[in-house]
Amino acid sequence: MQVGIDMGTLAGGQPAKLDIEELLATRLLVQGNSGSGKSHLLRRLLEQSAQWVQQVVIDPEGDFVTLSDKYGHLVVDGERTEAELAGIADRIRRHRVSCVLTLEGLEIEQQMRAAAAFLNGMFDADREFWYPVLVVVDEAQMFAPSMGGDVSEDARRMSLGAMTNLMCRGRKRGLAGVIATQRLAKLAKNVAAEASNFLMGRTFLDIDMARAADLLGMDRRQAEMFRDLKRGNFVALGPAMSRRPLPIVIGSVETSARSSSPKLMPLPEAPQDVEDLIFTPDPEELARPIVRRAPPQPRPTTDILAELSRAAPAASTPVATETRPGTLEMSPEEREERLSAVLAEILDDPQAAYRTDSVLYQEFLVRARMRRIGGPPMAMGEFRRRVAVVRSGVDAETASSDAWKTALSLAEGVSDDLQGVFLMMAKAAIRKEACPSDLRIARAYGTHSARRARRLLGYFEEQGLVVVHTDFSGKRIVAFPELEAETAPGSADAADDQPAPTDHFAAE
């Protein structure tokens, strides 16, 4: 069925039609500098096609959540675990629900991981649910960068792989990518090259104008025209719109973004006590915790440190007592004791709970070298397992029990970032301790968000690992069917007054 949606007007005043069925098969690339009207164009496309096709919007700034009021889009908060997002994406495809994945408030690396998990969840849906979906990705250069930036290599590859799947292999699965970017030069070429339809807006940099002209099949000398385009004016080309470049003025929209372009406003009259207002802190500011985020550490640095810590290769004539230069000769027991001491030093830092495993691992390797501990470095997987055990706060007596061994086995079924939370809850159940509060769970996960803590419990329950219920007074109880144990009743809203665990023993 051919459906032409109205995108605005052409130069002669005729309506500019876009064949939505053709668009699903050939994809779309929108380019324009900030303020050129890209978001307005995407909103017009979404509004006009909402009744014809399922829509999914990857929204880094939360601008498109207003679609839910008029068109019923489900708003999905990106502040979830990767497993949660993948599960939601799969159910989105099964039930054919339009949604907006809002990543507002997340740091860039978290946005990339969340978007990748959601896109992969849609991509991996069962064949029987491969219904057509219009997948709109705003600020696509963030999720498919042409080169590495300040994020880890692992996050970049994960996000770029998901975007490549969407644009290169998504068509057979019913996924039609619509990507918008401020800079063509910052967008990965293999992602941009898969689009057959183009809407090019105002652009100032020579390299971006040249690429836009090449994509539209225009002469390089005509590229200067992109500097003169007004806000909301685009040049269209592609089988879904026109076989030759045509100027289009995008029409009006019915919904509005929460953010808008800056407008001049007169300053208010200065109050008499302005110095007191500025220099006197509010009591709430003093109680607000100060979070010092560690700068993102690229993965290659960790690899280099691991390489430096690796034992020297064996010589042609092996010597039983040979050690790497600069390290101390020690027994396996002494080496294990020193490694445990290094791990204890790192995790005793109050801010360690809010640092990523890769940052902690890098610091662990550096301190191990400073203590001149020889031998092969501890693998990243083993390091994460030990950190999870330490953060659970388990004592030596509990760690030697059969119930704890079962808990460790169950923890292998959850992702690395959730094992610390799971083991902490399991320890509380085994020892019949009060159920940890939301803030305590959040700290174990490395966040200050109590809402995320509740989502983690919901995820564990969804996976069949725990059963959450309350007693008659409303206090929370978490039961572990596999352990035949449950926590004592505890208040979910209690303050996080429990100190960080300090019993850093070698849990094998």
Any overview of this molecule?
- This protein has 508 residues and is an alpha/beta fold.
- The chain has helices at residues 20-26, 38-49, 67-71, 82-95, 108-123, 140-143, 153-169, 189-192, 206-216, 274-279, 283-287, 299-309, 332-347, 357-370, 380-392, 396-399, 402-411, 416-430, 438-445, 450-462, and strands at residues 4-10, 15-19, 28-31, 54-59, 74-77, 99-102, 133-137, 175-181, 197-200, 233-238, 242-250, 467-470, 476-480, 485-486.
- The protein folds into two domains: 4-250, Rossmann fold; 299-310 and 325-486, no CATH class.
- It is built from 20 helices and 14 strands.
- A hairpin with a 3-residue loop joins strand 10 and strand 11 (242-250).
- The longest helix is centred in the first third of the chain and has 17 residues, at 153-169.
- The N and C termini lie far apart (62 Å).
- Mean pLDDT is 79; it is low at 311-325 and 498-508.
- InterPro entries: AAA+_ATPase, ATPase_Atu1862_pred, HerA-like, HerA_central, P-loop_NTPase.
Terminal CA distance reads 62 Å
Characterize the biggest β-sheet. Answer: 11 strands, mixed
**Class by helix and strand content?**
alpha/beta
Shape: elongated
**Helical percentage:** 40-55%
Number of domain units: 2
- Rg over CA atoms, rounded to whole Å, is 27 Å
Mean pLDDT, nearest integer?
79
Number of strands: 14
CATH-derived topology of the largest domain: Rossmann fold
Which architecture name of the largest domain does CATH use? 3-Layer(aba) Sandwich
At the first level of CATH, what is the class of the largest domain? Alpha Beta
Which sequence of strands runs across the widest sheet?
A: 2-1-11-10-9-3-8-7-4-6-5
CATH superfamily of the largest domain: P-loop containing nucleotide triphosphate hydrolases
Please give the count of helices.
20
Low-confidence stretches: 311-325, 498-508
Strand content: 5-15%
Organism: Ciceribacter lividus
Pfam families: DUF87
InterPro entries: AAA+_ATPase (IPR003593), ATPase_Atu1862_pred (IPR014588), HerA-like (IPR008571), HerA_central (IPR002789), P-loop_NTPase (IPR027417)
Protein name: AAA+ ATPase domain-containing protein
